[in-house]
Amino acid sequence: MNLNIFQQPRKVFIILFSFFFLFSLWIYAIPLFSNYQKPVKESKSIANGRLVWQKYNCHTCHQLYGLGGYLGPDLTNTYSRNKENETYLKGIIKSGVRQMPKFNLTDDETRELLAFLKDVDASGTADVNSYQPEINGTFSLKK
Is 122 found in the same domain as 62? Predict the structure, then answer.
């Protein structure tokens, strides 16, 4: 009986497992040795605003960072485009315009949604061509 037949698959398995293990270590070590920025902890108001965004399915019509629906405008930089005029933004949210329905948000929900949009505005731009994908699955501005 030739034992070489049984030895070959074992060697292949050991080699493949070794590569998998080294690759896994490399992936998890990237943030330790790069200029990877840890996410900033968001305030409760911003987190609740994100929940309002999801609750009313704003993403089906609007985009953030170029991702989402195409019926309404991209809201990534809506806060700075409207010169931080919260009264104007509240009016649009409360009364609706054109295809946008009138939402019956509470004052707290409106305030939290605006805090979320203000945070999104401060975090980036809607121009997806100005970003590049990183190896760890995030995106950064092109240099």
Answer: yes
Instruction: Round to whole Å and give the CA distance between 109 and 117.
Output: 12
pLDDT single digits (tens) 30-86:
777 766 566 666 788 888 888 998 888 888 888 888 788 888 888 888 877 777 678
- CA 27 from chain centre, in angstroms, equals 20
| Domain assignment of residue 5, given as a range | 1-34
Question: Got the DSSP string for 53-106?
Answer: HHHTTGGGT-EETTEE-SSS-B-TTHHHHTTT-HHHHHHHHHH--TTSPPP---
